[in-house]
Amino acid sequence: MSSSSNVGAARPLDGVRVIEMGQLLAGPFTGAMLGYFGAEVIKVEPPGAGDPIRGWRIVEEGTSHWYRSLGRNKKSVTLDLKSERGRELAGKLIEGADVVIENFRPGVMEKWGMGPEAFKVSNPGLVYTRISGYGQTGPYSSKPGYASVTEGFSGFRYVNGFPGEAPMRPNLSIGDTISAIHAALGICLALIQRDKGEGEGQVIDIALFESMYNLMEGVIPEFSGAGVVREASGTTVTGIVPTNTYRCSDGKFVIIGGNGDSIYKRLMTAAGRTDLAEDPELADNPGRVKREPEIDAALAEWCGNLPAAEITAILESERVPVGPIYSAADMMSDPHYRARGLFESVEINGKPLEIPAILPRLEGTPGRTDWPGGDVGSHNQEVLGDILQLSEQEIAELQSIGVS
Questions:
Q1: Is residue 348 in some structural domain?
Q2: Which among 26, 150, 154, 343 could bridge 354 via Cys, Cβ 3.0 to 4.6 Å?
């Protein structure tokens, strides 16, 4: 189903079995990353509609385009975890797994008898991965925590937007995605430790707010050491000059990063402002920070008199970092994206669909898409029959009573 040229090649997580029990985004994206790099990911979904993301945003033939990407390389099995029989079967799957991923509210898995302690004896090598809004411990652990809320709590939203206005969010669930990347990293580290040690697994506790907090660079030491709270700064970065977004004469935007000392000189010379290029007070970043409005106004005026393509050509010839702001349409028509293999083609009911490749890029054992996200319960027979060794009659009975 994939356009990758490495079909059948070995991948680093080959032989690792993962049980994905999360819904919505953080848990499922963790599973998608692991499956892309070879893990056997068994996704446990509720009977009927399955993971809610199947019905989010743009839906065709009952399944969203988003889910075709997010559900890639996963085996979908339906089990009603609110039923005793459904929990019993899910527990058996976990007993035979290397990794479990769950992103329920803290305490739910324990209530169901499937917390980490339940598998200490039956599966001591299990890497038990928990994703929640505020973590498994602490006074806020029981709070509901969607990514949007925890991005604010983490400090991330505070530095985004324009001074005096409501903090902005990107039109993405970035807290979920960043948390999934942290979870995947934690799982790989735990598997390495297990395999070089005595075979013991461990619990990985991922909090959405902590994953975003991990992106906060120098915000904490700047406040601790100097009492400075970094504020929102619009399209700039506080204390680094010049780096900004500028509107060109054709209405398009370019991003210019001219904050290196030698780069700054080339930038301002190209902009026809040799006076600012050669000014000794502006030779280093601290001096430029003091006169940021003057430098920014000069670049805004220059960009406003030329089309974006011309600004880009001039600065690229001078080796100044510059680039456009791309939409999905721009990305998919750009030859560099194509050359880097950032799209993979799958087939959905006879129609092609391009989905994003998953990074990082490994030269020797790259990941790949083997199949797109399938229908709810599309692997019930394989998982319940082949893995759990249930008979045809037992599988049919589970379906008839709504457990599967």
A1: yes
A2: 343
